Amino acid sequence: MEGERRLLPETPKAGDIVFENVFSVVIGNNRTASTAAVDCLSSKGLNTLLLADMLAGEAKEVGKALAKLAHESLACTDSSKSLGFVAGGETTVTVRGKGVGGRNQELALAAALNLGESEEWVIASFSTDGIDGPTDAAGAIVDKSTLRRARQLELDPKKYIMNNDSYNFFSKLGDLIFTGATGTNVNDVLVILVLKK
Questions:
Q1: Residue 41 belongs to a domain with what CATH number?
Q2: Domain encompassing residue 128
Q3: Terminal CA-to-CA distance of the chain, rounded, Å?
Q4: Along the 197 residues of the chain, how does pLDDT read in single tens digits?
Q5: Predicted model pTM
Q6: Contact predicate 126/139, CB 8 Å
């Protein structure tokens, strides 16, 4: 009330006495979460690489770009070891449709549309707070069987992505990631596995 009447400043400024006993310590961030994912993949014997911890951009476009990376990795590597790529950050969705979904779900669907069914790959994209957009899912997971299973259920993934309806697409396939609310938020983590036989 006193702030509204301009008797006190509404927001304390740097150097204000109220901050004398206040300490802030960052104990985790997206790089911490992304590096932990890299370490986990490495411990399973994969060649791993942290691509970014400040990933940004339109979810569909990022999904396409990461699909291209996975595809080129399959074609270019001589290693017999499976590969693991990790990226962290937060993409965005330009909503044009009337569906339901989040940035991680849309990114995963775009990646599936651009990777196809011929190679051994898996992509999981999820929010560290367990809530992707206005949904109860943290994200989604796709692999080379995603499009085949969608055809079997007569689902057109292009229609779903154009309607920003990735949640309903993945719900019908059973490919949503559910963690519940985690109580923390350090943006999103995306994991790409390129599997060698």
A1: 3.40.1480.10
A2: 29-194
A3: 68
A4: 677 777 776 777 888 888 889 888 888 999 999 999 999 999 999 999 999 999 999 999 999 999 998 888 877 766 678 999 999 999 999 999 999 999 999 999 999 999 877 778 999 999 999 999 999 999 999 999 999 999 999 999 999 999 999 999 999 999 999 999 999 999 999 999 998 87
A5: 0.86
A6: yes
